[in-house]
Amino acid sequence: MTERDLLTLDELRLALQHIPADDRETWVSIGNACKTEYGDEGFAIWDEWSQGGQNYKAADAKSVWRSLTPGHVRLGTIIKLATDGGWRRERREMSAEDRRRMKAEAEERRRKAAEQVEADQAKLERMQLAVASACQRVLEQHLAPQGRSPYLERKGVAGHGVLFPRRAVLISIDSQRERADVWAGLEVRDWFRDLPKPRPDHLHMFQIRQGDVVVPLRDASGTLWALQTINAKGTKLFPRFGRKAGNWHWIGWQQSPEYIAITEGYATGASVHEAMGWPVVVALDVGNMARVLPALREAFPAAHLVLCGDDDPDTTGNPGRQKAEALAREHGCVAVFPELGEVA
């Protein structure tokens, strides 16, 4: 970004008036640019602009702002979108002192943003460890290797390495105190009774109920990082701050596999394993497949990796198939699209 691109807060406010706030992807990008270039000073202006969108919700704006990681989008994105929308910056002669001041202010904002990124990353890692420890306690104390799951029965697949709750369990996750606590049985009822209303933004919960199937998520070394629950209706939940990136669930582990299938959902993975006998890696979603594939390639260089993608021709552009085929080309593996009926 050059000196002439620097915008004062008033100029930023005027520029945003030429950008519609209804498209969520654009909305998030603008927020990221504001946070990158203006730090927390940018929130008020971004939030003010956001209120022009049809789906604006104050709580959503605050939550998204907290989740934004500065540095991914720069001010140039705002300038480009505003210019496309008809904005023309009022040109005026700036004194050398004004230029020095604006440059110093921009550098200070970038420094603070970089410090915030570093602090946020360190906190995220601490929270991931806290959640992983709580999940490990749940696994050891409150889950069983055998149980009944209406979801698995409906899908017609068995439980491969998944677990079943012995009792109701809740993990409370407090990002302010940076801790995760486990509550079980009647303690869950007491926790909800004592929960402040409205619930504070820094307090999150992850519930495991009777009838859920619980999918452990581990890294290549076998370390547990998180748990996914799937209820009778197929709703899948994941704990806040649970580390998913690069981790997976094994089905039918083999020491030196000839083939390894990679799927998004558990039921698809179980179906492939039961049909083919291959070990299967469940990555949970196509985004995580991109992180899992390099680790598998490194750990099992002799194995044939088979990416089992989701094919949905009724969806415009069929993005699931396109992403799976692109990943297969990038990582030198095969993409297939099993016809397994209603599985996920």
UniProtKB/TrEMBL annotation:
Residues 15-82 form the Primase C-terminal domain. Keywords: Coiled coil. Residues 96-130 form a coiled coil. Residues 260-329 form the Toprim domain. It comes from the Bacteria. This is PriCT-2 domain-containing protein. It comes from Halomonas flagellata.
